[in-house]
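question for whoever is on the cluster today: can someone run the full assembly for these? two chains, 818 residues total. i dont have access anymore since they changed the login thing
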Amino acid sequence: MALEGLRILDLTRLGFGAQATLICGCLGAEVIRVESTRFPDAIRVMPPFVPEPGERGEAFGVATLANATGAASPNRGGIFYKYNTGGKRSITVNARHPKGLALLKDLVAHSDVVTESFAAGTLDRWGLSYDVMREIRPDIVYVSMCGFGHEGPDTSHVTMGPTAQALTGLTFLVGLPDRPPAGWSFSYLDHVGGYLGAIAILAGLIHRGRTGEGQHVDVSQLEPATALSGALLLDAMLNGRPSRRPGFPTGNRRAHPPCAPSGAYRARGDDKWVVVSCRTEEQWKALRRAVGSPPWSTDPRFATMAGRVEHADDLDAHLEAWTSERDRYEVMALLQDSGVPAGAVQDAADRLERDPQLAARGHYTMLGNAEVDPLPLEGVPFRMSATPPHTGGRLRRGPPCLGEDNESVLGEVLGMSAADVGALEAEGVLS
Amino acid sequence: MSAAALDGIRVLELTDESAEYCGRLLAGLGADVVKLEPPGGAPSRQIGPFLDDEPGPDRSLAFWADNVGKRSVVVADDAAVLELCGTADVLVHTLRPGEAEARGLDFASLQARTPELVVCAVTPFGQDGPWADYLADDLVLMALGGSMAACGYGPGPDGTYDTPPLACHGDQAWRTASTYAAIAALGAIAWRARSGQGQFIDVSAHECSASMTEWHLMTYLCSGAVHRRGPHPTLTAADGRQVAALNPDFLGPHVFAGMLEMLEAEGVAGPLSDPAFADPVHRAGNYREVWRALKRLAEKHDGETLYELGQGAGLPWGVIRSPEEVLADRHLRARGHFVELEHPELGRSVTYPGAPFLAHASPWVARRRPPLLGEHTEEVRDEWSAR
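^ ran it for u. tokens below:
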């Protein structure tokens, strides 16, 4: 595997940080999660909960402390399983115990990378600042991932995905003309921030390989997002055309290059939709044939792309009358077979149960652990011919139970005996 | 001066607009990214908006945004592409399954000539599977991947939706695929440094898009429920600006305590000062009162102030900004995030988003503005043939 033989001491939590190390784990790095039994990762103990074998869990809802503490075990929090594939192992260490801190320092000495996603300054207060770490291990690659990063005037600010999405323009860019932004209902930037965290780790390792030099890489959740809006920033600055203007954003209609028909159309069923996107003349002609060349399709107003764009509302109404009588997958197959880009609007259930492409590509891997039956989990969505990634990481296993690897990690990495580990446990160091 | 992480790594980019962001990331890491273009220019040069709204191959702002830091070489035919592949480290392409073979650019042929070459193919659905030959633009990928199903306006009072699922502007599925392509390429570069071996990377944009909906798959697996669309909690400030106002009670009792202190200082806490609200169960059952107090707060302040008040209380609030409004953010400016690049032919400089993170020993670089069509054809031929 691409990162075979590399060890990451992983102190990340929640989604943003854990996304970065799951990628590295899938690429073969040994990822040792350092956790706490006293302050478990929130996504270990909040709903939705992975059900007991053979039953469905309670309905999910707004997570509150009340139902968060209702978790039967720190190993049932469902979101944990999204972000902790890659064969990660879990140890529990009390960093506030002097022996716990000493243990972490010993682990740093045996690691290539240290990752964390605490608030800026947290590790310094533990006595595990970058300066301390590089004294122990001069070439350590230390990647911190926190909302506003470790430098700058607002490092005390806190983010979750939607915070960063609001601040960087991404929330603004989901909406219909002249209505407030609809935004994203999930934390897209937990993923994107994590991808850039993975890039920071990989680039840090490549740099170390070439120069022998370690470093601190300061990843925030904001900067990875500023280039995601493409040309809009330049259009505002150079052409004086701000995004905050009447009629913008334009919903699902592309501004550049303008094309029609293009958008989401109702299909048969309750709130079922299919996307159709004709970006060329050829695709429009194919669409006309596919819908059976009804009279509206030869309306002279629709004869050119410019005409179709100008009369897009009428065109959409005609097309939607056709799609709304048909199943979304049927529309997709019919149009795709005719050479028209189209796709069903799929939710999570559809992706798992109705998407033949994801199934054929082996997108999901069944993985569980001692407490949880195997679930279809995700890793990295690409293949590599010489060093195939695996969702179960180098160990081919599921996300870890809290602290399940105390003995094996401390034994393998630090050469401690079971008796040594037992003694630390008795002293409350491994909590 | 410190070296960038990929200094000296040669990347050839033979892509349409769907994967240009990959090359932008690799260029930022210091790679010498050479964009291969036909004599008429890459198709992305025809995509608007254009500088001063005048079309032209060197005036596409969409092209500029995703091609910062690259060089441009015009290639007359695939023989020229093959020749450059012989001295490159990485080839990123967007050729469809079958197309690469037809042009003699398939991995087997390339590897036979240059065993250490890393080839990264970014396609809508990957190299195989029942949909491999299907067509897709970003909208189709956002639909199939699951983002759209969970983005848009909420239902009306009767529970029915009168507006469609929405995709975010900016080609986010393509950007996610491009980012994963960069990750895979870095993994392959790291592996090659140890093994001397190249390899083929197969990126399916559909799979990438399907991976980015946070907890949705787990919600379904755990409960059988699927997430429907609807905005996050949002406050409207006195100036009409909106603020994403998340109140993550699940992170611990300090979250509400910080909020209450701020609301009391602002004189809008009302019933929340009742000790009963310290109990999270009571709070969850009376969340309407919490939201009412927040609305009273919002009526008193403009959006940027409301954002600062929330953050001052330890809450992950964020004012909703348009992309150009991000430019004024004092924190990003202090981190030197935005960079000015000189466009000498225009006699001006242009501001671009810069480093996605601060890497002190191997800094992110923005070495050149987006290339003019064919600007580096001769230069690259001379430099690369020397290896």
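summary bc i know u wont read the tokens: Chain A is about 35% helix and 10% strand. The longest strand of chain A covers residues 30-35.
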